[in-house]
Sequence to fold (473 residues):
Amino acid sequence: MNPISLAFFIACALALLSVPRKWAPAALLVGCTYMTLGQGIEIGSINLPVYRMMLLVGLIRVMLKGERIGGGLNTIDKLVLVWSLWSIFAGFFHDQERYSVIYFCGGVFNVALIYFLIRIWCNDIEEAQSVIAVVAVILVPIAIEMLLEKSTGKNLFSFLGGVPENVYVREGKLRAQGPFLHAILAGTVGATSIPLFIGLFGRYRIIATLGIAAGVIMTFASASSGPVMSLLAGSGALMLWRYRQHVYKLRIACVLAYLVLMVTMAQPPYYLISRIDISGGSTGWHRSFLIDQTFKHLSEWWLFGTDITRHWMPMQGIASDPQHTDITNYYIGFGVAGGLAAMVLVIVMLLVAFKWVGKTITTWGNENSGRCFMIWCFGATLFAHAATSISVAYFDQSVLYFWLSLAVISSIHSISQLGEQEPELSEFKDHFGDDFGGLEIPALTAGERNREWREAYRRRLSVESGESSGARN
Fold:
């Protein structure tokens, strides 16, 4: 690590350890986003880039402060735990000289720790909005830097290592990437964050405007079709807000349409991806053919994954590993690493999260339309990530943004099931009087405040009932 990176890491780590819980995700996001994977330390066979070091600091904070998951373990939490254990177990069945179990533990560390830290720190929708406001601020300097890349052809983050100094050019277009490992990933982070910024308009109008502008700039500065499609997917999901009562019918219609395409098309419907080329020079055919080859070679990877995929697409290899083809699909990546079980577990997590978005909105009701729209925005962002994952494999700090959306939806659903709505004050006035019996409203989150009040309420009723019974006797 160079001195600047070391000083930056120390500052972010100290902030992460000391700020109030609601601001912990902000410190984590700042520390992870701005540092390239070229900065970090190596301890034997263990590679610790800055974003992993920040996750480790987050874990230390949780242990020191005794912070816990709000609402207890839910279905998605358990799925993440099962996926983690299975992925590590599957690691024993890979070539240990090339991919040791430590390698698979690192992959689990990147995903599970991000998920559970956000799960612990975001306990209500207002806290989540504050974190997204910080994300908007974080992306503004990156968007400005990516504009400079487009005009100068130089990446200012290159002095940190891990990213090239000269901007990559394809089809005559400069593809800006900022601190991310690939232009597509940079553009994807910007594009998928836009629905979240739209959800901030009711509370942080100026910050939301800046965030939307930054997201749009990052999307188009990357000069890639993938981020544009991510933006369209997120925007389409947002537009369904007015017709949210009919989403179930739309899902059925989409399934039926896919079945019709299977019957009428000469090739499988996923080959439609090959026809998309928004920015010019798109490799949509590669992505379609990868899905095709993955199905054809199912017997090779379905149980524990595989160490060799180069023969699936001999002309689409990667320099970092001559035994593998370029796996440009997040779901297939999980399958190659941990088999069909690992892939299915991730897909089920997403399906449960989408279901919970609708369930949370139903729980909150029409009187909380602003909060309902915000959770819908999280669902739209997760949908954009889910759609993007068909053609993009997340492998740098962009992983944080994928799992953040899932974790927030999981947290908000759990808290809403505990009764996150504010209790009716008249309920307490009837029993405690106008001064609420001397009880003070604690400075807690909505969910914690609600539970605190109701526990106090039950205790008071119990005491009063005992006194009344004693008087009658």
Notes: The mean pLDDT is 87.
